[in-house]
Amino acid sequence: MAIVLPLGASVAGPIGTANAAFDPNYGFDFWVDSEMGPIKSRVFRAANGNTNRVVYALDGMRARDDLNGWEIETNVARALTAANINVVMPVGGQSSFYLDWNAPSTFFGTDGSSTGSAGSSAVGSSAAGNDVAGKRNTYKWETFLTQHLPRELNNRLGFRSTRNGVFGLSMGGSAALALAGYYPQQFSFAGSYSGFLNTSAPGMREALRVAMISAGGFNIDSMAPPWGPQWLRMDPFVFAPQLRDNNTRLWISSGSAVPGQGDVASALGIVQAVPLEALALANTRAFEVRMATIGARNVHYDYPATGVHNWKNWEDQVNRMIPDLSANIG
Predict the structure, then answer these.
(1) Vertex 265, ends 113 and 303: CA angle to 5°?
(2) Is 148 a catalytic residue?
(3) pTM of the predicted model as reported, rounded to 2 decimal places
């Protein structure tokens, strides 16, 4: 763990991309006001036009302000809509863990600029936009995702706001479980891919501190004080009994940290993506043990023989998950 933490945290983003998928004529922008100001999401309609089956797709720590990484790097929206599921992709929230923070972040100015492609790799830059909320104002992503956004999706598009699904990668994985744990009427299904599901483990706060500085210059102390009730509330390992008691259907996965064919294209990619996935795997295995000890039977675990911290593996997981998701929402 001592080796994994500094190497993985210093990258704070997955390496490698799937086939670029953005099509401006496919999804549409959906703006909603919030305490953070206007926030954009991207919406993709189910093939059969239903409004009852809805899933939220959460981004990684380097979430950009123009598009969600799932749209930039993968084709999951097309796969989900073909399965008659409406897809909502919130845009922005870099380093936020999709939580309500205590205060604006205090590192590196207020322009919201950062490197990274929605968590994809350390190239490119994000335009000032949704993430500025975390610097000039205070992140209120939990409130946005559980109040403002579902209300407007229902009012304007007729989308059902109960028995939705939610999934995410890395930062978004732990956030998906938190949303399901604390809002069981809204979310009946949650998926975590390469998530950090034991954030109170020794060394994890320090690792996340470094990661959040790297991903946009965000101060973890503005999010939650160390080891207090607010910090423990965000840890899936801690609130696991709620997920069991809610009987929320969960899909939990992590790669083995062994590169597979097409996982990485360079030695640098291996140095970066392998340790980060090893850290996620350790967190995910700890969460699995925790759920087993409390008798939870509502989880599917998926551990591919190969796979590192990248979009190729997360897109594979979504495609594998779709039948289970489809059976547990709406």
Answers:
(1) 90
(2) no
(3) 0.87
